[in-house]
Amino acid sequence: MVNKEEFRRKVIVSAGQIFSRYGFKKTTMDEIAKALKMGKSSIYYYFESKEEIFEAVVLHEANILRNELTTAIKSVESPIDKMRNYVFVRMKSFEKLSNYYNAIFDKNLDHFDFIETIREKYDREELAILRLILYHGARKNIFNVANSEYTALAIQTTLKGLEVPLFWKKKEVNIENRLNAILDVLFNGIVKK
Amino acid sequence: MVNKEEFRRKVIVSAGQIFSRYGFKKTTMDEIAKALKMGKSSIYYYFESKEEIFEAVVLHEANILRNELTTAIKSVESPIDKMRNYVFVRMKSFEKLSNYYNAIFDKNLDHFDFIETIREKYDREELAILRLILYHGARKNIFNVANSEYTALAIQTTLKGLEVPLFWKKKEVNIENRLNAILDVLFNGIVKK
DNA sequence: GAATTATAGACCAAATTATTCGAAGATTTT
DNA sequence: AAAATCTTCGAATAATTTGGTCTATAATTC
Prior knowledge:
disordered C terminus
């Protein structure tokens, strides 16, 4: 390969598809290798471990998502509701990310019950946001899969943090501030700005 | 459980969801058990093996699909094109089945290239039918996963068999005959009539 | 043509997996 | 209420899978 970074990107894209479909645990290095048409051991020349690949994939997806959100929201003049609507339309992207979540916590499906409970407090649209939250919770716990209580707590904290900028109806809060608050809550510590 | 058959049905529905999502190989008995909120070993009281569960699931899905197709096509007065349209609308059901296929042949993704080649000969709608064919091919080879050449051949044979009743434009062929021919090709040996 | 970069096949220890078995709760039958 | 049967599951297991390593070797660069 000409460039080491280029090959890493190829791995990220290719493995990303498999991860998003089957999740971390169910995705095997053999599959990733096969998709890349390479020997399994060759991948270890570019990545240290399966976890490193996964981390790179999630970071990549988070960056895309963050960019999409930032530019999209900035181009909206009307208030917060339009933003919500946009997020709803972009659900597909979130779905991809929420698959990572499904994957990571494949043994803790109970979290969805929790989300369902929360959902009832808001409109259907908020589901899209909740997916983001899921992702956020997931990202924070990728390597702490075992501790589901910690996960639940992380999700709850994120929800709490989102309540102010997203769900409050106070019109006087300026949209730019809300945007930044939301992005901060969702991506803080995940994506370098 | 009151009734043995009733519990088997529960397993089929529950396991079916997991199978359709992750496929045969990636679905574990632990997952099925967890979804049923039962001990893993209890399932073996009702089913002999994971394969038996899978077979029951696929049979169940095939029966539903067959019934849907039969009643739907029978209620259509205009020619074959309307039927195609219906099939197109019902794509969701087929998607579920095609997931089984993905799952079973998770290492033979090349088949999809083959399908793509075929697709170009027909309209987009035919994709729906092709999914059915995929399913058919899958069903025929569930327990011959290793031999991918045999699979390709099975799919080709099915396609060939479908060409006459489905894709030929000859108006003189009566729709009832076509229907039977199609169902025969697709479900022959799979679902007891 | 030596040194470095890149690839993959054989291999391994650890983990996972489908399945078995026996024991113990239930429930029904006598 | 004892016996017989039905249902459940935890623990054990044998076979397979899996992430990762090591070594040999091909390709590229110097």
